């Protein structure tokens, strides 16, 4: 039995509240159970120097946890003067994932930055961030299309992410913090609606797994992402 | 007339939602109109080295704005590797203000950190932060007292803050962003319930004022803080 | 009785030695008693990027204490790799204060930087810095006018600053270090010759005060600033 | 056809020169074709504070590229004052991978740091680094066992890593730089001798793949790692 | 002819004003012509961790230029967040030089930090700094001896420094800024009273010299240091 | 007798392996005995802003030690976020030395960066670095001439460097680590083929020396550099 009492293939409740902040071109507060991430999409009509003049745009992401999003207070990265390796790893993952479903040429010479700030953490913050960032991006892009600044939709598909793990020998979906702390293996899947895999990050520190284990985790992830796509659909309608 | 359509001595709507995040010993989301600040109080049973062994505790604060809390996206301090002077000035002000109503001996050898993260900014973020931080602190202290870890209440009073300014020649209360950008003078008052002044930061870049002007701003601030004390009262009940 | 033996409304000896360093366009060594601050004004015929092309100039300030300006040696900020919040707060205050008496359009598209380096500290370093920075600025501006680079005088008035506090219940003027360490409240006033207030920073950590207390401190500050204006007058003649 | 002229399942030449530097407790220069990484293992009889007193040791890694390891010179991280996200991501991966085959209790309260410095880069630096770091670690551990400082062998197995990708529609093994720059998808596999998976990092920026694609890449990786285990075997004999 | 009109072997006027600041255990303002450096010696009854428990003390130095010590304003190192290579090179030289005449065992387990802050620069700031730092150190050590905290004098000799260079083919003593900017070679000599050499830093960027050239510069330096020893003697009496 | 068993005027074995890495325009691995430094020359057809438009080029250097180049592991500068004073001092020395034999006008508006990375340290890393950097520079310049991008050879001469010291009273050539740790004085000489001195850095921390001592060290250095010039000659043929 999972600490959360959920079935092995059961996601936590997914809620997506769009328009959570008013200044961003797109924004939502996404929750996977008690994990809550504020995602905003900011459109800027300029590109970093190394991307200019190529006739295409850029999508990038930044990620942070509020100091007390977690059980014990973590030092504020701004006060320490640098971002941790974990933060950088996650924000690179978010950016890559969203670019996997964006046609940068259709986006035009502009940059959209997805800020994913974790207000409350209970496991799965990076997967909630990717899933919510897509909603914020979709809303921002829709705004650009409504204003006629973009002609053809640059978003090629929906994308979502979920973590799976092996908990006491059983593959389970959408680990919360208690489960994650005790899992033998942990994998994050970023999946594109329609069946393609955008990214797999499967790690076993201590325990390990084989092909069959990997495929079982992936099957769970597909189940979870289907739920997320539905929630995204409702949110952006 | 004010851009906001408010009367000169009219506060924006104040709302305080306690328990906004679950891990912190005290937390609230405070709104002054469209300005929304998440305040959390984290209790730690240890002190920085220079404060140890004096038989008293410490209250400190950190402040940050999410990158897209504002009209245009601001660079993330963690990414830039340092906090701005403005951020440091504000977090020092929040810490000093809360210490003005805390008996550090009664707090005992522990530290409470108030994290004030601006989710959405529309003027007056530092005053909302101080007012909300008091609520988070009050809740955290209450928790310590309920568990018997503190005997006598270390909080000596309520404290609240509000900004006032001279807008087109008229002293007005609780400036929002549009008003603030066009005000001739700007003053932040931190006032203790019962009439004492904890802090005055009155600045005139360009315009100036005299004793009478200062006193008129202060009278407005008293009005505003009275509203805030009432909202705090309701929140911590 | 004050530790310094001074009357409650008595300033320390003010001396201003102009031309203390030869390279700066304006410079002075200002002393408030044992507090000594070297102030230089550097004129540069260029502006930071965000100020260019607006047909006006900029006045800014930097502040620092030499490591052994104080009773015990403080770490050098350059060695530690960052400026403290206190330093940033003070240099922002100095810059704002001088801009309050400068017509930036008349200054033209150039920047004047006021460097205020405390050679010896005995309380009131920021107020001495503002008062001395005005002298350095006045000299630099005079030089620009003498060379015909500026037509109309951009300085609209004299500006000076002084700290006041409540020491053992009595409001006193121009706190030195011993008094400051033991004062119940501490306020810095930046006043423009002619009666206007540019800035008030009144802080009560522990003790507090009310309107009457604030006004009494302000009256003392007016007395002190009158002495400083006279010293500035003599210095720039 | 691959730019390198290799068959789809053909590794580049693997060479491992042990004892490349004399001070480290274990060291080797590993080459995957033109990619050359110097791996050293440094044993220290102390642990970082947060790991002390738990009766177990720690294995960690640092990674860097010499500025001119690449086609064009990259800025030196030490000069820029921070490590890139890519560097941090890679060194975290190396550390996790080696810990997956280390029994930290048997290691005892000491730390082994694997430094992986890329002297020349031609694709696959992180996989060469992991494979070479294992050799350096093995040699260092052997030294500790020979001196009687460790009783039971803490290394549970061999570990190796290799990158695979989809190049012009065909899954290929061990991408070099030219192939990597033009691959549609790129996956790094860290595999434990005996069949277990330690880590999968599969990324598709632009292109994507499905279960079958992932499994085909994984089969290639198994082939490649078998060659690496043999080279490791010879090196540590 | 030299721009300064001095003879080839003529020092600039040397003045040393002791007790320039009151808090430091030893202090002086030293001038070599228009170059003015404030030197303070701070005694601390503690050592950095790596020097503790060896029964001896430490002498170290820090160096800085005020931003407007020079013809054009230089950025403040504290604001830029790091010390330049030049600053570090100079402060390491000052520390080494003073340790060359200090018996660290006789000093006992305490640290003396020499802060050398250039108030005005006109060439030769590092040599003035070394020469002045010795005076500050002498005064601080004398204070410790007077209070009985040190029994035997740890200072074994006087030490002084001067720059020499080849200007239009002629070796000249004590270069000022104009001469230094146009010299073909530049050498700094740190010499111990009695004839020993503590340090030579001779650089030829562009031009070069041979043994004879080096010896001629060294002979000039001896002449210059003799003048400095006399000024030091008078200062510490 | 020297710990190394060498005669007082005997260099360690010098080997120079050119083309050690393939991407750099010039590269070599230079060894002075067990000290091994990888030197690469990178040509870039652009200059830092402050050097542009003067019709001449620039030669600069960066230096680093791999963390485990030494007996005990040193912290990685990139991880600590700054270069030590020692590193900066050395890389400035390398750059100055190579510029002493380069006609920057003949080089044209391009920059050559010499990266000197110490793979293994056993004393004399900076002198090996200078001597090897010349080889890398020579090869890079030759490449530019072969391609017709430079008409006239900008390198005016060969340059080499060696350390000498006074070990147990005897002047000795080319100190290794054991000797260096116990030497009474230590001097680095950078000498141009043909007899000119480019740089002398002679330091005596503790012990001292006089003219005669300095000249004896210099004579030894000339012997050592002659051997290095021969090795350089063979390497670049």
Automatic annotation (TrEMBL), chains A, B, C, D, E, F:
Q: Which residues form a coiled coil?
A: none
Q: Which GO terms describe its molecular function?
A: 3'-5'-RNA exonuclease activity; tRNA binding; tRNA nucleotidyltransferase activity
Provide the E.C. number(s) assigned to this enzyme: 2.7.7.56
List positions binding phosphate.
86, 124-126
EC class, as a word, reads transferase
Catalysis: reaction(s): tRNA(n+1) + phosphate = tRNA(n) + a ribonucleoside 5'-diphosphate
Any GO BP: tRNA processing
User: Which of UniProt's keywords are assigned here?
Assistant: Nucleotidyltransferase, RNA-binding, rRNA processing, Transferase, tRNA processing, tRNA-binding
PROSITE patterns according to UniProt: RIBONUCLEASE_PH
Which ranges carry the Exoribonuclease phosphorolytic domain? Answer: 10-140, 159-223
Q: InterPro entries under this entry?
A: ExoRNase_PH_dom1 (IPR001247), ExoRNase_PH_dom2 (IPR015847), ExoRNase_PH_dom2_sf (IPR036345), PNPase/RNase_PH_dom_sf (IPR027408), Ribosomal_Su5_D2-typ_SF (IPR020568), RNase_PH (IPR050080), RNase_PH_bac-type (IPR002381), RNase_PH_CS (IPR018336)
Q: Which SUPFAM superfamilies match?
A: Ribonuclease PH domain 2-like, Ribosomal protein S5 domain 2-like
Q: Which HAMAP family match?
A: RNase_PH (MF_00564)
Subunit annotation: Homohexameric ring arranged as a trimer of dimers.
Q: What does this protein do?
A: Phosphorolytic 3'-5' exoribonuclease that plays an important role in tRNA 3'-end maturation. Removes nucleotide residues following the 3'-CCA terminus of tRNAs; can also add nucleotides to the ends of RNA molecules by using nucleoside diphosphates as substrates, but this may not be physiologically important. Probably plays a role in initiation of 16S rRNA degradation (leading to ribosome degradation) during starvation.
User: What family does the Swiss-Prot or TrEMBL record give for this protein?
Assistant: Belongs to the RNase PH family.
Name this polypeptide is given: Ribonuclease PH
């Amino acid at each position: 039995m999972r600490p959360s009492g959920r079935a092995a293939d059961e996601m936590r409740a997914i809620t997506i509240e769009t328009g959570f902040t008013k200044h961003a071109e797109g924004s939502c507060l996404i929750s996977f159970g008690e994990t809550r991430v504020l995602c905003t999409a900011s459109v800027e009509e300029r590109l970093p120097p190394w991307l200019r003049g190529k006739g295409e745009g850029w999508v990038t992401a930044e990620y942070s946890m509020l100091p007390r999003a977690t059980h014990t207070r973590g030092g504020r990265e701004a006060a320490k003067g640098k971002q941790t390796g974990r933060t950088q790893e996650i924000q690179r993952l978010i950016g890559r994932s969203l670019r996997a479903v964006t046609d940068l040429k259709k986006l035009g010479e502009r940059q959209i930055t997805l800020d994913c700030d974790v207000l409350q953490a209970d496991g799965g913050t990076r997967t909630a961030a990717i899933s919510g960032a897509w909603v914020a991006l979709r809303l921002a892009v829709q705004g650009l299309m409504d204003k006629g600044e973009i002609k053809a939709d640059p978003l090629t598909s929906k994308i979502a992410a979920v973590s799976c793990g092996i908990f006491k020998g059983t593959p389970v979906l959408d680990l919360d913090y208690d489960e994650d702390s005790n899992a033998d293996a942990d994998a994050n899947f970023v999946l594109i609606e329609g069946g393609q895999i955008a990214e797999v990050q499967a790690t076993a520190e201590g325990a390990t797994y084989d092909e069959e284990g990997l495929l079982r985790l992936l099957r769970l992830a597909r189940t979870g992402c289907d739920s997320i796509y539905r929630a995204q659909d409702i949110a952006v309608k």
